[in-house]
Design a protein that fits this description.
The chain has about 220 residues and is mostly beta strands. Helix content is about 0%, strand content about 30%.
């Protein structure tokens, strides 16, 4: 099943697809905190740009994240700039991420919000590609410019073949997603169990790209 939308503000939504190429986010710290009656691993970045998850667990984003580039006249040689998603989930299942009512904002044209990396670089002939599943993102605001606020995709069908590529248009950079199209035959999609809850999602372009079955988007706007 696929749905995608061009909007500044969007309510709840399911969309189909993609493969993105991005630099990895900074790895998570090993500090645990108590929040809303639960214990979670704190996610923070000293630059305030990106955080990443690399294994199962409960996580809390403990700061606002803001991606922008300095003006050309102000930028120093070799000055680092943000180049990865604000939140990345890398080859992990059974993950919950609470944004703790923080605001994630990417003002740069290549700035991506939340990205779940699932098998995009596996060859079609290279063994099984089971979906990473049961991933929940909740409680916060994500704002992007040209890129989606959320990308959560399992890029393989039940025959272990990658979904074919289809362009999303000129407004998304050239290595943007591949759209899957099985002409309504949802049996080819794997069960991914993604959940988006209590989120405000804003973008000048596509808001959510999501692919799989048994996904839930609730109390979003």
């Amino acid at each position: 099943m696929k749905v995608f939308m061009h909007s500044i503000k969007v309510a709840c939504f399911i969309a189909a697809t993609l493969l993105f190429s991005t630099a990895p986010a900074a790895q998570e710290t090993e500090k645990f905190i108590d929040y809303n009656g639960k214990r979670c691993m704190e996610l923070k970045d000293h630059n305030g740009w990106s955080v990443g998850v690399f294994r199962s667990g409960d996580y809390c984003v403990a700061q606002d994240l803001y991606q922008t580039e300095p003006a050309p006249w102000f930028r120093l040689p070799h000055q680092p700039v943000p180049n990865g998603p604000m939140v990345s989930i890398n080859y992990a299942s059974n993950v919950t991420i609470d944004l703790m009512n923080h605001h994630l904002s990417a003002k740069i044209p290549y700035g991506l919000g939340i990205y779940q990396n699932d098998g995009g670089f596996w060859p079609n002939s290279g063994g099984k590609a089971p979906p990473y599943h049961a991933i929940k993102i909740s409680n916060g605001t994500v704002t992007t410019s040209k890129q989606p606020t959320v990308v959560m995709v399992h890029a393989w069908d039940k025959k272990n073949k990658r979904f074919y590529h289809k362009s999303l248009g000129d407004n998304i950079r050239s290595n943007a997603p591949a759209l899957a199209d099985y002409r309504g035959d949802i049996s080819e999609y794997a069960e991914t169990e993604y959940v988006l809850e209590n989120l405000t999602l804003e973008s000048d372009n596509i808001v959510i790209i999501m692919q799989g079955k048994k996904n839930v988007i609730r109390h979003c706007k």
